[in-house]
Amino acid sequence: MMRTIAAALILGALPLGALAQQAYPAKPVSIVVGFAPGGAADLLARSAADHARETRGATVVVENRPGASATIATAHVARSAPDGYTLSLGSPSPIWVLPQLQPVGYDPVRDLAYVAQLITQPLPLYVRSDSELKTYKDALAFARANPGKLQWGTSGARGFAEIVMGAAFRREGVETVSVPFKGGADAINALLGGHINAVASSDFGPMLQAGRVRLLVETGPNKIPGQPEVPTFRDLGYPVSFPVFYGIFGAAGMPREAVAWWEAVLKDLVQSKRFTELSTKMGGIPDFQGSRDFTAMVQQGYGEFRSALAALPPEKR
Questions:
Q1: DSSP secondary-structure letter at 235?
Q2: Is 114 exposed, middle or buried (0-12, 13-18, 19+ CB in 10 A)?
Q3: Residues 208, 128: Cα–Cα separation, whole Å
Q4: Which CATH superfamily is domain 27-121+243-316 in?
């Protein structure tokens, strides 16, 4: 009896963390989004947060830190404690593109842990539905006849869309002006307001369904679901053509328990009716990959994108 009391007193004097390792997640998780609210990345992050809360009872908050094509948010996550409580919604711009063009404060291969891919997403060039530019050929003809007059928006400066679309325009020998915004939603607002001619981004889905935009060309290698008439960069023989991915990542060294927990949650999400509806709305394709496959895909794509950039003239990178 005395030993039991003494043990209780000793344990009561210890901090809770010393008593036992609490199962993950033992406190709120933050998903940092590097773009403004309302875009594709923001919608996906909030869907993941909602699903974790509703099916697992976890507290997950979404924090928007837009700017610099999501490299600000990515650097924040890379510098965070590798405990699985600070995550982000990743895309090609901060992972494949910007680290190869300028200092970003992190190495995407060494400093990040890739948890799971959720979706692959088209990234087309599109115009307002009432635009006189009916096809990609029309856009190129307009640009040739009016050098510097075709203005097209993106979700961030020197991001994935700007690189691949800019490379295509240069290949065609036309002079255009890219206009970066802090997120795809901002670029769309500028398009609908008549301030720019077109947008290259993955945030087209809701506007396409509402009949407010028309797709001209897909920068990736695969056809857009329901849009067989829209040519792809592969169709056109362009050398820089990559599919867009979205997935969850954290700081390198995340506990395996945290990675496994999110793998299970996100696989369940991708298989849900909720996610099917969201994917249809976005114009994307549900494409779950666990940590092992997602990591391999990111690392392979990083090397392939480096090779594609190296093939461009230095002044065009």
A1: T
A2: buried
A3: 9
A4: Bordetella uptake gene, domain 1 (3.40.190.150)
CA nearest to 169, candidates 93, 223, 238: 238
The CB density around residue 304, as the number of other CB atoms within 10 Å, is 12
Can you spell out the DSSP letters for 51-76?
Answer: HHHHHH---EEEEE---GGGHHHHHH
- Span 124-218 CATH architecture: 3-Layer(aba) Sandwich (3.40)
- Tell me the C-alpha distance between 256 and 262, whole Å: 10
| Separation of CA 4 from chain center | 55
pLDDT, tens digit, 9 for 90 and up, residues 234-285: 999 998 888 899 999 999 999 999 999 999 999 999 999 999 999 988 888 9
SS3 state of residue 115: strand
- Rounded to an integer, what distance in angstroms lies between the CA atom of residue 121 and that of residue 223? 11
Of the chain, the percentage scoring pLDDT greater than 90 comes to 72
Model confidence pLDDT, tens digit, residues 123-182: 999 999 999 999 999 999 999 999 999 999 998 887 889 889 998 999 999 999 999 998
What strands lie across the sheet with 198-200, from one edge to the other? 177-180, 151-154, 198-200, 124-128, 213-218
DSSP 8-state class, residue 232: B
Q: Which residue has the tokens 């369940």?
A: 268
- Give the number of residues written for the chain: 317
- The vertex-287 CA angle with 152 and 93, nearest 5°, equals 35
